[in-house]
Amino acid sequence: MKQGIVRLLLLLAALPVHAATLAADDYALWLAPVDGGAPIAEHRADAAMSPASTMKLLTSWVALQTLGPNYRWQTRFVSDAPIKNGVLKGDLVWVGGGEPRFRADDLVAMLRELRRRGVREIAGNLVLDGSVFSRVSSADDFDGDAECVFAIPPDPHLTNLKVAWLQFFNDGAGVRAALEPALPGVVLDSRLSDGGDGECGDVRSRVAVRHDDSRVEVSGKLPRACDGAQTFLNLLSPADFAGQSFAALWRELGGAGPRRVVAGTAPAGARVLASHESEPLSTVLADVNKYSNNTMARTVYLTLGRGPGDTPANAERAVRQRLAEAGVSDEALVLENGSGLSRHERFSARLLGEVLRNGARGPWYPELAASLPIAGEDGTLKKRLKDWGPRLRLKTGTLADVRALAGYYQALDGRRYALVAFVNGTSVAETNGAIDELIGDALARLPR
Predict the structure, then answer these.
(1) Which of the four, 129, 133, 258, 389, has the lowest number of CB atoms within 10 Å?
(2) CB contact burial 123-158 (16+ within 10 A = b; e otherwise)
(3) Domain boundaries of the chain, sorted by first residue
(4) pLDDT > 60? residue 363
(5) What is the pLDDT of residues 184-202, one digit of tens each?
(6) What is the mean pLDDT of residues 392-411?
(7) Model confidence over 368-390: pLDDT tens digits?
């Protein structure tokens, strides 16, 4: 019996790999029960490798441990100016809270609160106070992806993820397009014509859209079936987008002013005129991990570094401190922005595996596990590893020459396992097939 167990462990320690696509030096694997004990299987588990977006698991674990699942971000409008006859006789300061997903609807709600206070005109400036972060951590070597939504950097005033919606109409009243919000500094030049009958499909295949930070041009023949279709555009800097969104939505509510948008800080003693409280951290992490939102993950990471001093340096210190408290070595850890959108970030499969084990034994395991994609059901795993179903929850990671998976599996006997797999290097396939097979090979040796 004992010899049989030994043989099984040796077999597990040398899991077969899809040899046609993976080189032995290009992957790492770590699999262990969360209730402790030696790993069941490991291969190059101490090698420092790019984790891609599985880095978000480390950031999520530290955030839950440090901030708690009910942590909420605060956004405020403040002023020290009096309100007379509906006019705010001075500046309105927008104190950015660094909320990971501050929506246009949240901004509208704050503006409505301002109107309920009796303000109809802002005589001074709109001052953007972004002092919540001393600076934003980098994501070097992604300049070619600057126009992509996944590469949008965090910002204390990031509104609607800096995305404007372009909506198309062909309803008998003329073929046209409209920008939402109607950013006052951006000219929309619509040169659309009637495309007649036929299916719409992806509206971007029917029309041409060109834009810079001051102009959006739309041309082409728009089928009637595209009436109401929309697409999104990444426009402006975060500060310009926030300021122009404020101006557009404030005018829609009948408001006048401000004179201009400037950077600054809130005066001491300024009173709060409107405020917004974000969704709790646990809800935010579901967006971060299920849909691998880089901008939101980077913002959560920066939140770990709030306070005096250098924000990214403080955030890194918070991560390393939590690892030390958990008894997890940080020797292999290289941090840049906490999201995995990085050419520099590294850690080992063992480090992340031990973090997952610690998280599974802690009070916030339900929140951490609930944030992960469910195999074959949702998020970035909706079309992957379907045979394993809801017992398998994994965070995915994808970069050029990098594939990663990490999370939890619960066997039929109720025992839970932590699982980490990284593939880095030239043998990475264009698809996810090789790493999915690697995961399947590991799980096939556990009770179903």
Answers:
(1) 389
(2) bbbbbbbbebbbebbebeebeeeeeeeebbbbbbbb
(3) 2-70+281-443, 74-159+237-277, 160-234
(4) yes
(5) 999 999 999 999 998 999 9
(6) 96
(7) 999 999 999 999 999 999 999 99
CB 98 within 8 Å of CB 133 = yes
**Model confidence pLDDT, tens digit, residues 124-170:** 999 999 999 999 999 999 877 766 888 899 999 999 999 999 999 99
| Mean pLDDT across the chain | 93
Residue 70 has pLDDT above 80, yes or no: yes
The token pair that represents 328 in the structure block? 């997890």
Q: Does domain 74-159+237-277 have CATH number 3.50.80.20?
A: yes
Which CATH topology does 2-70+281-443 take? Beta-lactamase (3.40.710)
Mean pLDDT, residues 254-276 = 97
Spell out the long-range contacts of 177-181 with Cβ–Cβ below 8 A and sequence spacing 24 or more: 177/218, 179/216, 181/104, 181/244, 181/245, 181/248, 181/249
Residue type at 140 in one-letter notation: D
Q: Smallest Cα–Cα separation from 235: which of 288, 169, 184, 301?
A: 184
Model pTM score: 0.92
Rounded to whole angstroms, the maximal C-alpha distance in the chain is 88
Residues 27-37: tens digit of each pLDDT: 999 999 999 99
Q: Which residue has 């990085």 as its token pair?
A: 342
